[in-house]
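BUG: 3D viewer hangs when loading the predicted structure for this chain

Environment: internal workstation, default settings.
Expected: structure renders.
Actual: progress bar stalls at 90%.

Input used:
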Amino acid sequence: MKKLVLFAFALTLMFTVNAQVETPQPSPLTKIEQKVGLTDVTLEYSRPSMKGRKIFGDLVPYGKMWRAGANKNTIVTFSDDVTVDGTKLKAGSYAIFIAPDKDSWTVYFYTDTNNWGTPAEWDDSKVAAKGSAKVYDMPMDVETWTIGFDDLTNNSVNIGFIWEKTYAAVTVKVPTEEKVSASIKNVMSGPSAGDYYSAAVYNLSEGKDLDQAMKWIDKAVEMTKDQPRFWFLRQQSLIHAANGDKKGAIEAAKKSLEGAKAAGNDDYVKMNKDSLKEWGAM
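Structure tokens produced before the viewer hung:
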């Protein structure tokens, strides 16, 4: 009996030693991913909260380097070369550091991402780029430090920083136009109908060379005339309209409407009807 009691005690002691209490992290880690044009951007950072404290000018002093978060480095990764305030930033991962002032911040992209907080010794040679971020006052407090991808376009994104009553952002430009142009040039030696279609729609969305866009979309529609695609015809109508050819736009919209009805696609039916009304054809 005594041995049994001792064995039970040993088991209890073992489980007590190995057990760990789980509690929430005070500055939880987050990871966000964003496609900007054709460039993948990933951000990893830890998020401290105000907890009744004054932040900028106090917890985060003005004029001193700050790690843009908590715990290990805040890290941003770009799949392509990008540009920050006119400086090219090569594809790769960078730690973000911020030197805040009342009216503007300087945002640093630092090549050494293995620090816990700010580096013990700052090395200017490791600053790959830096950008200026204007500060905006907000009408309410934001409790938790937040970094996001704001004001997305095909060619740029603002990396926005929000905490307390402060918002600031630095603009990053991505090489979408160069990549699309290279892709178009590469495939146009033997492009498919889909390639012509994609190139034409891109030019329309960017307001670039609508004459060329019209040639490409007309080629795409011609190549698929045996099996008309109502979505091709829809874009053909929009491109012709944008280029001042209302007659061609109406003709394409009517064909797209017919195809959309046959396919039972109510969205395209409505879009084509709306355009035909706008162009005075219904």
